Amino acid sequence: MMLYNSAVKNNALKLLCVLAICLGCSDGDKEDGDDNDTNNENGYNPYNPYKEGGTSGPSMFVDHNNDGINDICADVTVSASRVTPTVTFVVDGSSSMDRNFQNSRDSRWEIMVSTLMSRDDGVVATLQSVVSFGMVLFSGPADNCPDLRIVEPALNNYDALNRVLSDYRPGMMPPKYTPTALALDAAYNLQPDSTIPDRNRGPHFIILCTDGNPNSCEAATGQVGAGDPPPEFDGPIQAVTSGQNKGIDTFVISLASEGPEYEQHLAQLAEIGNPSTPAFSPATRDALVAKMEEIVGGALGCNIALNGRVTPGQECTGQVELNSKVLGCNDPNGWRLVDERHIELLGSACDEFMNNVAAVLEAGFPCDVFDIEVII
């Protein structure tokens, strides 16, 4: 198996595609007239040229137990690939997003859109080929609440997101309401159908980007010109709890401070959505970009999906190499079996795999340890 990954930016996240070799052994005879058709006292070995890991084949094709037969052979080639995470942005489009961001001359909306879509360092622009991005843009005009503009998650989804964001301005028709709970529910409903087999499916993350107190559309009718409705915190809490029960992590980005009650609410949402990541309030655009990269990078990880099944408990009879270096099985800087269809690189191996643009990964398993599996 050989893998090449291409950098998406500096030392950040990399696109990785993988080919794994499952090695099914065969004792069958070669065709008549084959000059390399040889037998020995230990039985026919069609991969003798690879016995010592010579230049004619991958170095892992070796005779580990010195019985004259290669323990790993190459009758069956199967594919493997990095799992594809799904990241859905839930973006506040209320009128307050038209206000200045911190001490910047740019609005909160402009900073948010730039962080996602900038061709130079925008998260969607740089990672759309390896992350399935989606979006729920939400607002609450008094005469049309909620207004949800939904882009279903997909790879290479930059243009679809950009069309929605480019056509929208928070100040064009000032929305009175911030129906955060309804937007979150819509985002959780975009989760890929878990009943459809897909070995490449990765985690699904929600990133909530908001700058105001959530409230309800229930009092929207006839409220044009009236004061802001009171905050409604229970709805978002219930929505994030429901998402977490489905196995979907939710991360919270706060683009403004609306007072202690608001900050406490966002802290509670973040605690429910992903206890290890508090709500984040960026002071600068660079800080927001870095946080987005951190969250999405966590979704990428170093998991590799196989199109077959490794027998649990026997995975260490196989071999994984990174840049011609054998990685230890169950080593903190090597690799481990996540489940029968996935392996994961760990520690320094993961770092090298993510950051080295010329990284080459090779892997093989004995023929009685790996069963190829075809998903239609």
Report on this model:
It contains 8 helices and 16 strands. It has 376 residues and is of the alpha+beta class. The strands form 4 sheets. The protein has a 6-stranded antiparallel β-sheet with strand order 1-2-3-9-14-13. A 5-stranded mixed β-sheet has the order 6-5-4-7-8, sandwiched between helices. The chain has a 3-stranded antiparallel β-sheet with strand order 12-11-15, with no helix packed on it. The chain folds into 2 domains: 3-81 and 302-372, no CATH class; 83-300, 3-Layer(aba) Sandwich (Rossmann fold). It is elongated, with a radius of gyration of 26 Å.
The number of helical runs is: 8
Strand-pairing-aware structural class: alpha+beta
The averaged pLDDT comes out at: 74
Give the overall silhouette: elongated
Q: Give, in spatial order, the strands making up the sheet with the most strands.
A: 1-2-3-9-14-13
Tell me roughly what share of residues is in helical segments.
Answer: 10-25%
Q: Which homologous superfamily in CATH is the superfamily of the largest domain?
A: von Willebrand factor, type A domain
Span of the ends, CA to CA = 23 Å
Q: What is the CA-atom radius of gyration, in angstroms?
A: 26 Å
CATH architecture of the largest domain: 3-Layer(aba) Sandwich
Total strands: 16
Q: Major sheet, described briefly?
A: 6 strands, antiparallel
Poorly predicted spans: 1-62, 73-80
Question: How many domain modules?
Answer: 2
CATH class of the largest domain: Alpha Beta
**Order of helix and strand elements from N to C terminus:** EEEEHHEEHHEHEHHEEEEEEHEE
Sheet-strand content, in percent, reads: 15-25%
The fold-level CATH name of the largest domain is: Rossmann fold
